Amino acid sequence: MKRRDYLKNIGLTSLGMAVVGADAEAAALLDKPKAKTKPKGTGELKIPGGRTKEEAIRDVKLMAEKFFSEHEMKTITVLVDIIIPADEKSGSASQAGVPAFIEFMAKDRPDEFQTPLRGGLKWIDIQSIKRFNKQFVEITPKQRIEIVEDIAYPEQAKPQFSQGVAFFSLMRNLTASGFFTSEMGINDLGYVGNRPNQWEGVPEEVLKQYGL
Amino acid sequence: MLDFQVKEQTTIYDVVIVGSGAGGGMAAHELTKAGAKVCVLEAGQPYDPADPKNITQLKWPWESPRRGANTTRPFGDFDAAYGGWEIDGEPYTTARGTQFDWFRSRMVGGRTNHWGRISLRFGPDDFRRKSIDGLGDDWPIGYDDVKPYYDRLDRLVGIFGTVEGLRNEPDGLFLPPPKPRLHELMLQKNNKKLNIPTIPSRLSILTKPINNERGQCFYCSQCSRACQAYADFSSSSVLIKPALKTGNLTLITYAMAREVLTDPATGLATGVSYVNTLDRQEYTVKGKIVILAASAGETARLLLNSKSARFPQGLANSSGVVGRYINDSTGASRSAIIPALFDRKRYNEDGVGGMHVYTPWWLDNKKLDFPRGYHIEYWGGMGMPAYGFGWGIEGINGRFPTRSGIQKAAGGYGASLKDDYRRFYGAYVGMAGRGEPVPLESNYCEIDPKVVDKWGIPVLRFNYKWSDYEIKQAKHMQDTFEQIIHELGAVPLGPKPTAEDNYGLAAPGRIIHEVGTARMGNDPKKSVLNKQCQAHDVKNLFVADAAPFVSQGDKNATWTIMALSMRTSEYIINEVKKKNL
Ligand SMILES: Cc1cc2nc3c(=O)[nH]c(=O)nc-3n(C[C@H](O)[C@H](O)[C@H](O)COP(=O)(O)OP(=O)(O)OC[C@H]3O[C@@H](n4cnc5c(N)ncnc54)[C@H](O)[C@@H]3O)c2cc1C
Ligand code: SF4
Predict the structure, then answer these.
(1) Which of B191, B349, B464, B536 could pair covalently with B508 via S-S, beta carbons 3.0-4.6 A apart?
(2) Same domain (yes/no): A88, A164
(3) Residues A152, A185 within the same domain
């Protein structure tokens, strides 16, 4: 049964979800990957459910554009994986699709992101060339960390690195936002909502833990 | 050759209503159920939250390329508002040195499709503020006049809450409330020590089914996305839909009302002219009675734009009061992090779409340096991550030792940073005051003499400034928030707002509770409507949104909009029966 139909049933029969909680989850999983888009209107445009036509047109247009060069994308990929690497719990930022997310945001909010990101990427390459005579992606992981150490700690960084600090903070924020809103990141975080359930209050053992 | 022709409908409806939001939906519901033939003009598009083309409920952040960021929709990709602070081709302006932000939704149900569902009755004091503090004006009606309609509303729409017996926070007919979330329990426990009451919230969400048309809440926390089970209140699903089922309602969407038409001889309203926003043609629809419910701002605009030889100042405006006294709730907020919640155990804490507890106004203004009160709304918990998640961690992770007691430098990268996000997840809380302003004649909206929208309709110009009353109230909010945060054992985030920024007082309009633009009263010189929300100047013209409000309490306006709309509808039905209309 499709999640939507399933929910229709709730609407019509007013079933208490407590009775059918497990099914609900199964149903929710069933149609997750598909039915995101359906053909409509003329030509190629598909308006995904929940989007207006204007929004869909804008999204399609942005997705077709390319802002970052290949070199910039490579640099972004290296940086996001330094910020959020794979560990025993989950994969890395690039494995979760963060570079593509950052590319999209740069096009979605050009005034906010394009110059700080493009300029910041260049800043980091110049640093790298000054120190090691090579661009950031070409130096060794150890050399990269040497640069990152200088810009990763806003309260300790030397004044001459302040622009690098601002850039790295922006990258950190975009990377975290992109990673923890991906399927991988949400599973990592242990968010278990966004599905029909019956809220019965805070679990007993948690209440006990906090003396409530 | 001119291809311009106004298309007139031959039908004469019993009632023409402009707007299908909280107020218009309720009037349409009540009047069609009573057998009246009603036409609703709605500027926006049709909307059903269960139609797949609208559904955003239960979608995951990665289903949006911007992860739900608010680039194109003001409250993010998954929010159910078709509209926003700015609408293409439909501007409004503000007078120099003043501020007003106006949120509009262009859809059947208006802003009730994505509102916060906080459904508070006004209390007895809220109708008689002048008698209490000498400021502003009393309403021409009191709580007892509205109580029967609040009761009917509770039963018709459904609302959860608890009977508390607080004098100025009247209890309703409540469904069971959801149990508090963890941070809400902590707030309840610690606020008690400060004598700040923290009680179950009152939201129009069905924790139990109330009929066969609407389902029961399944706790996804996403009412702002609109519920496909119809378990939360929206005018589109709960009022307009059953009104359509009576067969008595003609709902015309994409119909942007331009003017109320009047008979030059009798001065009575005869109908409404509108432009169809799809074909851009002009139409009129005729009615024996006209009800304006296009939202407080838009209703003032319609009245002011409906000028004629007989009504040179705009319709129903012999007093010159239309547009005056516009007022929005005060709002200020603060957030914090609760170290006790670091590394908390995971479970599904979504709950309903909104807070499960809130703080009603609890102090005595006689002992304070500002008039009128505010309530406090809270947020927090293990919500679904969205765009902005983890943002600004460099301001936080240097302030708390790690699990193994190491004090790290703020910012950072790598595995240990990744772990910080997990550690802080669900440890944030926030709170916001929503307070009552003093309505002032000097705050008003008027027609901008130079600007028209793309339909050629002159637009509103707002003139709004906060007074000292509201600024002092915001200061008090900030002091209270710090107390609450401290007692909670939490650490406030960001600097405390100061006098330079009006203590964080949100710009007028931002709280989206604009009311009062056609206020009611017994004196036709000082008010637009009588106590039945009937225009003093035009007896078959009524207003059923927040325009009639004389003041707004610290209670979000919508429950009272609907109770008054119900009351006005009943009055109309009785007057028609008595042949007075
Ligand atoms: C995010 C958000 C959260 C909110 N939370 C709460 C809350 O928790 N509690 C609360 O009490 N209130 C809340 N509100 C406010 C609440 O939504 C409004 O008070 C309420 O919807 C007002 O009802 P209304 O009928 O006056 O106007 P609306 O609901 O705005 O409906 C007006 C309708 O008229 C139509 N219209 C406008 N102009 C014209 C025209 N010229 N011709 C034809 N049609 C027209 C519009 O398209 C719209 O559909 C919230 C609002 C927002 C945006
Ligand atoms: S929280 Fe409940 S009422 Fe609100 S959208 Fe989810 S299921 Fe519907």
Answers:
(1) B464
(2) yes
(3) yes
Q: Is residue A46 part of a domain?
A: yes
Question: Each residue of B137-174: pLDDT tens digit?
Answer: 999 999 999 999 999 999 999 999 999 999 999 999 99
- Residues A32 and A95 placed together within one structural domain of the fold: no
Q: Examine the domain organization and report whether A51 and A135 are in the same domain.
A: no
User: How far is Cα A145 from Cα B87, in angstroms, rounded to an integer?
Assistant: 47
Tokens representing residue A17 in the block: 């979800």
3-state secondary structure B365-377: HHHCCCCCCEEEE
- Does A205 map to a domain? no
Residues whose CB falls within 8 Å of the CB of residue B132, separated by 6 or more in sequence, listed in order: B125
Same domain, A83 and A146: yes
Asked if A41 and A142 sit in the same domain, the reply is: no
Same structural domain, A24 and A85: no
pTM (whole model) above 0.90? yes
Residue A202: inside a domain: no
Task: Tell me the β-bridge partners of B428.
Answer: B337
Report in angstroms the alpha-carbon separations of B259 from A76, B90, B321, B363.
56, 16, 18, 45
Phi, psi dihedral angles at B319 (to 5 degrees)? -75, -20
Residue B208 near ligand 2, beta carbon < 6 Å: no
For A152, the closest of B55, B382, B412 (CB atoms) is B412
Q: Which domain holds residue A109?
A: 70-189
In this structure, the residue with its CA closest to atom 6 of ligand 2 is B220
- Residues B23, B546 contacting (CB under 8 angstroms): yes
Q: Which of B56, B210, B232, B350 to mutate to test the pocket of ligand 2 (most atoms within 8 A of CB)?
A: B232
Residue A117 sits in the same domain as residue A30: no
A203 in any annotated domain: no
* Residue B385 pLDDT > 50: yes
* Percentage of chain B modeled with pLDDT above 70: 99
Residue B89, chain A, CB below 8 Å: the answer is no
